[in-house]
């Protein structure tokens, strides 16, 4: 772990702070480039980025405070005093930013599909940069590795899972998949937003699995708070896919078959 990047007297620079700033720069640039390629006005892109950043910061802190209220129960002043009690929620920031993008895109008359696709093509690279900082900071530890005897030669037994490294590997794979989906989307002229919906489905599912390897202190009914947030995101993404991504057309024949087959027979038997 290497939480302190640079120290000059009382002035200190932390690796997590630097990685968050760099992650924001990466996201902002890729987000701008993608929307600009779709003909969105640069002033609107700037406004979207500004309000999204502000909402992500507030939501990230708010969700962290709610989930770790015991750390702030003695005085509410700690909520604003980040230097006294630091802490942010990645998924709180993600949800807050996403909700802001949805509402602001309508206000600025920017196609929501363009915005969702831009997020899918910019967020993964940014989160990789942020995860490097989290790994160096050690603020999100993994669970203790408990491998079977036959696998102890790996040398990780008794140590913690390097969950940030797992996430980086998964996200790199996810980037490759999303780029292939985008290529197919362009070739087959899919509706705008489908690439984004696929990203949210794959990201929420994969991160849900990786949450089992994290050592978290906030659980609701056997699942971590982050996992419940990811379940909500996954459900919303499935709903968006059903409406926007062709899921309705794919499922409709099956529904009609059931209604006209088994369901019709059951109804007939019930009325006889």
What does this structure look like?
- It is built from 10 helices and 4 strands; from the N terminus they run E-E-H-H-H-H-H-H-H-E-E-H-H-H.
- The model is unreliable at 249-272 (pLDDT under 50).
- The protein is globular and about 50 Å long.
- It has helices at residues 15-37, 42-67, 77-80, 90-107, 112-137, 163-188, 194-210, 225-244, 247-260, 262-271, and strands at 4-8, 11-14, 219-220, 223-224.
- A hairpin with a 2-residue loop joins strand 3 (219-220) and strand 4.
- It has a two-stranded antiparallel sheet with strand order 1-2.
- Helix content is 68%, strand content 5%.
- With 272 residues, the chain is mostly helical.
- The protein starts with a strand and ends with a helix.
Please supply descriptive tags for the structure shown above:
272 residues, mainly alpha, two-stranded antiparallel sheet, two-stranded antiparallel ribbon, 10 helices, 4 strands
Layout of secondary structure:
Blueprint: E1 4-8, E2 11-14, H1 15-37, H2 42-67, H3 77-80, H4 90-107, H5 112-137, H6 163-188, H7 194-210, E3 219-220, E4 223-224, H8 225-244, H9 247-260, H10 262-271
Antiparallel strand pairs: 1-2, 3-4
- Structural class of the secondary structure composition? mainly alpha
Overall pLDDT level: 82
**Count of alpha and pi helical runs:** 10
Strand order of the largest sheet: 1-2
- Main sheet, how many strands, which sense, barrel? 2 strands, antiparallel
Rg: 22 Å
Shape: globular
Please report the total strand number as a whole number.
Answer: 4
């Amino acid at each position: 772990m290497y939480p302190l990047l640079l120290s000059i007297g009382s002035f200190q620079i932390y690796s997590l702070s630097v990685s968050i700033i760099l992650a924001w720069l990466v996201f902002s640039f890729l987000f701008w480039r993608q929307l600009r390629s779709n003909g969105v006005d640069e002033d609107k892109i700037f406004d979207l980025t500004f309000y999204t950043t502000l909402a992500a910061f507030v939501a990230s802190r708010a969700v962290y405070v709610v989930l770790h209220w015991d750390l702030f129960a003695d005085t509410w002043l700690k909520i604003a005093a980040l230097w006294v009690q630091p802490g942010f929620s990645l998924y709180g920031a993600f949800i807050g930013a996403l909700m802001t993008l949805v509402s602001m895109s309508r206000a600025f008359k920017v196609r929501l599909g363009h915005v969702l696709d831009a997020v899918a093509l910019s967020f993964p690279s940014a989160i990789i940069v942020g995860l490097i900082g989290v790994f160096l900071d050690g603020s999100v530890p993994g669970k203790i590795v408990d491998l079977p005897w036959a696998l102890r030669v790996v040398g990780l037994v008794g140590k913690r899972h390097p969950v940030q490294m797992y996430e980086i590997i998964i996200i790199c794979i996810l980037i490759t998949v999303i780029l292939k989906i985008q290529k197919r989307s362009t070739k087959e002229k899919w509706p705008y937003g489908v690439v984004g919906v696929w990203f949210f489905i794959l990201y929420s599912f994969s991160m849900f699995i990786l949450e089992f390897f994290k050592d978290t202190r906030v659980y609701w009914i056997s699942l971590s708070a982050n996992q419940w947030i990811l379940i909500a995101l996954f459900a919303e993404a499935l709903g968006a896919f059903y409406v926007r991504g062709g899921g309705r057309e794919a499922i409709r024949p099956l529904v009609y078959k059931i209604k006209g087959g088994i369901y019709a027979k059951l109804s007939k038997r019930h009325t006889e």
